[in-house]
Structure formats: structure tokens, C-alpha cells
Amino acid sequence: MAKRDYYTVLGVEKDASEQEVKRAYRRLAMKYHPDRNQDDADAEERFKEASEAAEVLTDKDKRAAYNQFGHDGVSGAMAGGFSGGSFSSIFEDVFGDIFSANGRGRGGPRPGSDLKYVLTLNLEEAVKGCNPTIKFSKLAECIECLGSGAKKGTSPVNCVQCAGRGQIAARHGIFSMQQTCPRCRGRGKMITDPCPKCHAQGRLEEQKTLSVKVPPGVDTGDRVRLANQGEAGAQGGPPGDLYVQINVREHKIFTRDGEHLYCEVPVSFTDAALGGDLEVPTLEGKVSLKIPPETQTGKLFRVRGKGVNMKQVRRGAIGDLYCQVVVETPVKLTKEQKELLRQFADKTKDEQSPKRSGWFESVKKFIDATE
Fold this sequence. Notes:
Strand order of the largest sheet: 10-11-15-14
Structural class: alpha+beta
Order of helices and strands: HHHHHEHEEEEEEEEEEHEEEHEHH
């Protein structure tokens, strides 16, 4: 049976990069690997075919010869099928420590997991900074066996099946590859006398209390990293980190947008019309805000430097406070007040309500144009 084109076998273009070739080979090798397709001759043949194609197309010299002369250009190097040494190299290169004998991640020390803690603050705490105390659970190193899992005074011994390597050789037809040792599960060590406190786990769950330094200016979504405060590593691995994620509660008065604060300031009808001085709140106390005569609702007034200091968290500037005027219509009027307002309305001219008169003029023009 004639050999298929190597590029067709892997499903890549002739100008495919080496990484694209490896990705294509990985996909096919995982699909047709003998471990996954036992007693399937067709799958084994496709696995061999993909491996042979990958060996050629990931070798610069072989690929150049193949591109120029086709299968004849590499027939000498590939006589009798692909070479075992080259196949082992390409297989381990693509799959790393998943299958290869060089993988030490399973049996060796493993770093501990990172942890996340959601810390909810009020706006004042987030803006000014604080040092709250948090409590959480985590896997910590067993103090009895110091993380070894073996009873105090003893030590783990090499696995008798893999001799401490964590992996054993397994043959599948013409292939020889490494697999995780089933006896020690890749650790390479066996505990003959387990620690009575952690039952050979080397780690125990414990309650931890920490003080967190929250810098001024944090906002929802920001994180504070506490190095080495995550879960303890396995087999002597380093501990993970603890990430404290900030969540800021909504405030009754202020709305925050980055370094700036916003608030609504209710103003009476008479103060808006005649002007006056109002006291408005800030996170540092009250300040006086001058309302000029004839102020309209929605008007924004800026109070400089009364926002959020972002210098420590984002190297920004100090924000401002924006006060939005909301003119209140009086309610629960007495008969006398209503009469006074009617008299006021009778004496009000159109030019004293420019927005109202302008709006009605625009409406009149629109209606006339549509009739």
C-alpha cells in the first residue's frame, strides 16, 4: 500500500510551522494511541503513520529532503519504518511529562494551591485603608511529621516496584514508554509507618487568622496578595499564596467612579432660585457649597480634592467630589402657600423659564411641520 502524503496525514499545510505540526500530531496521537484503542489494528496503524509523519516534518533536514524528493528523499532514514530513537524524542517533546520518563512532576514535590478570600469593606474603609483580621481554613503542613506523612522518627522508603523513580516501563507492541507506577502512584516513595496525626497525608486542615493590610484607595475587584499563605505543598513543595479579593459595599450617599465620588444634593425651590450656601458631606467631614441664583436641577458642582486618593494602588491622583443639584418640588402645601404660588405663576414671564418656553416652541414647530 502506497504511503500517504505526510502533510495529508497530519492535516496541515506545507508551510505549517513546527509548532503547528506538533499540535496536529498531538491531536492524532491522543486519538489513536494504543492505550486508548486496545486490539484495534487500524488505530495502531494510524498512530504509526502519524508518528512517522511527525518525525520527518519536525526535523529540518528530513523535511527539506521530503519537500524536494517526497518519500524517496527520506526512504533511507525511514527504512523499515520510523526509527525508535527519533520517535521517542518527538513523542516526549510533544507530550512532555505526561508519558515520558523524564516527567518528575507527579512523584516530586508539588506546590500548594492558591486560595481566594473575599473581603467586603464599606466605602470609608476602602478609601482610607484598613487592617482587618480574617479567618479561613486551609491545608497546612502537619507539625507532627513535618509534612513527610511518616511517623515521627521514621522516613518514607523507595517504592519496591519502581525503585523510587515513580514510573515503570510498559511495552505496547513495538513501543516502549513510561507509565506512572501503580504501587506508589508516581510518588516514588512508600510510607510503611504512617503519621498517626495526618494519616500519611502530610497535611491537615486548620483554621488560620491573619491581619490584612489594605492600602488606601482599593476598589471592588482589586486583590491583595499574601505570599506563602495558601495551602501547604505536597511532598515538601512550597506553599501557595492567599489572594484577598476586595468587594466594596454600596454607600447610602456616595457613588464611586474610580478616583471620583458623586452625590446628589437636594435643594429647595427657593434656594435654587435665590441662591445660598449649603453644607454637603464628604468622607472627611462637611464642606460649604455655594449655590448661585437660578441654579437648575442636574447642575454639577465640583469640590476639588475630596474624592479618593489612588496614589498607593494605581499611582493616580486624588479625585474630586461631584455634587449634583436636585431641585425639590414642595409637597403638602397649605392653602395660603398654594395661593402664593398661583400669584407667583401669574407674574412669571416666559423669558424667566427659558427651557420651558423653548421646549414648547420646538413642539409647536414640530406639529406645524407634520400637519
